[in-house]
Amino acid sequence: MRCSIITQNSIIKNKFTLDQMFVIYYTKLKTIARSLLMKETNPHSLTTTELVHESYIRLAKGKVNIRNIKHLYYIAGRAMSRTLIDEARKRKTIKRNNGFSQISIEIVKDIPNDRLCLIVCEKLEIIKSEMLRLKKCNKRMYNIVKQVYILGFSVKETATNLKVSRGTVEIEINKAKAFISATLTKSI
Length: 188
Fold this sequence. Notes:
A two-stranded antiparallel sheet has the order 1-2. The longest helix is centred in the middle third of the chain and has 28 residues, at about 70-95. The chain has helices at about 20-25, 25-40, 50-60, 70-95, 105-110, 115-135, 140-150, 155-160, 165-185, and strands at about 1-5, 10-15. The protein is mainly alpha-helical. It is elongated and about 60 Å long. The chain folds into two domains: about 1-95, no CATH class; about 110-185, Winged helix-like DNA-binding domain superfamily/Winged helix DNA-binding domain (Arc Repressor Mutant, subunit A, Orthogonal Bundle), CATH 1.10.10.10. Helix 8 packs across helix 9 (about 165-185). Helices cover about 70% and strands about 5% of the residues. The termini are far apart.
């Protein structure tokens, strides 16, 4: 990818690639990364170097038109922020495990395939019947679960679609998980 080399406020005619620009301004980009990492409340598994490299990868995937040094720092900083947000989401997913318990592969491998299919089908039937029961009991909770888990909308998109707050969506999702998993636990 070709970009124009930049001075503080102007663009010079020489053409440089994005990776060359990252090499030239690497020290300052690491300072930006360090600053972003220090602002975070939760510890990260990323180092400043890894964060700079991740921002480069994000920027290299798209078409970048850098106007000046400040603009380079701005878009690299935004890419770093997006990387930190993605990392936080991954940690939250792993930590929360989406509300479902994991089954050890050692347990599953001893179950014959036809029995395993039967178990999975039984669980899906239970979830389906619980969703129908949820639809009758609490229409809003049903719509939230449907949009997040079946239609694949994010919490923010679901909140916007249903004209409720993000907090309400998260609370209703947790209630629905408890509602459905209680029945699943009884059936084990």
